[in-house]
Amino acid sequence: MTYSFESVASIPTKGLYFSEKFIDVKKVLMDTFFGPPETGVYSSSVQRTLFLMGSAVLKRFVDVSSIHLKLPNIHFQPSKTLQW
């Protein structure tokens, strides 16, 4: 996570609780990406999925002003094949 401040006066005097915030943000990202365990969630595109994930974090955490996410734009899971 990146925190940026417009001026020195805007830097919080209390700790920024990164560990707790990281865990909470990770949960929102995972819940949005995977959806409910019983049904999952349909993804029309990688770009839409990333947009929904980032939007969910920004809506849930007012103290997070921006988020940068990256996923490979592939539609299969690469794996090693057996040599004949």
Structure characterization notes:
With 84 residues, this protein is mainly α. It has a domain at 15-60. 38% of the residues lie in helices and 0% in strands. It contains 2 helices and no strands. It has helices spanning 18-34, 46-60. Helix 1 (18-34) packs across helix 2 (46-60). The termini are far apart. The mean pLDDT is 81. This is factor independent urate hydroxylase. It comes from Arabidopsis thaliana (Mouse-ear cress).
- Rg to the nearest angstrom? 17 Å
Which parts are unreliable, with pLDDT below 50 for 5 consecutive residues or more? none
Shape verdict: elongated
Strand content: under 5%
Outline the biggest β-sheet.
none
Topology:
Layout: H1 18-34, H2 46-60
Helix pairs in contact: 1-2
Please describe the structure with a list of short key phrases separated by commas or semicolons:
84 residues; factor independent urate hydroxylase; urate oxidase activity
